[in-house]
Amino acid sequence: MKTIGIIAEYNPFHTGHAWHIAQTRRLFQEETAVAAVMSGNWVQRGECAAADKWTRTEMALAGGVDLVLELPTVWATASAEGFAKGAVSLLAATGVVDVLSFGSELGEIDPLWELAQCLNSPEFTAALRRELRDAGLITQEEFFDRAQDPLKDFMLNNTEINSLELYCNMTGVEAPATIEEARELDLPLRVVTPAFVTSELKHAFLIGFLLYIPFMLIDVIVSSTLMSMGMIMLPPSMISTPFKILLFLLLDGWQLLFSTLVQGIN
To answer: pTM, whole model, 2 decimals?
Structure first.
């Protein structure tokens, strides 16, 4: 009997994990035991797990794992390299794991092995240090100066000229007549940023208003119908809410809403 080791977070456990376990057992075509190393309540990047470790362990056991080992938090919250090193060391320390099983989009081990050898070679380390040294470092002020231009171009493309004129007048800056002229004037961020936010808020209120009109008409129709039937004590919202949801779904409201949001970005 072979013992197979799997390293995963199971955050949470899903059908892809179950398929991985089943395929691993099928490849060996013999009696196998699966031992999984799983992070605890804290996962990579220091994030809190979607479910506690006990719940995720129960899901893993129900999905085909025979033994779940908890990876210590110091390794579980480390980088991918530290996570893998800690998990492999834990599996090796058990002394019973024969095979390590993991999934990859490539599906071939040879290219991955060549890549690992390259990344761990002294030549790669020396080349990386040389390139980082030659590239040089910039200060926070230099980074801010370089980032301003593309950021302002994006915001100006999505800013109404009326909003831009408003904040130019408030700050005593010359107001441009067009967006192209605003680019030439090189307006400061203290003018462009609030103008962009104001324009986006106006669009958001417009979308909300357009959504409100048909819902309001449904409320009026339902209220009038209930009044004519003498059902005064029945809350109109109890009747109108299902009709609102049905109307939204029949008109494919989510697609219309998100397509409008995306198409509004230049």
So the answer is: 0.47
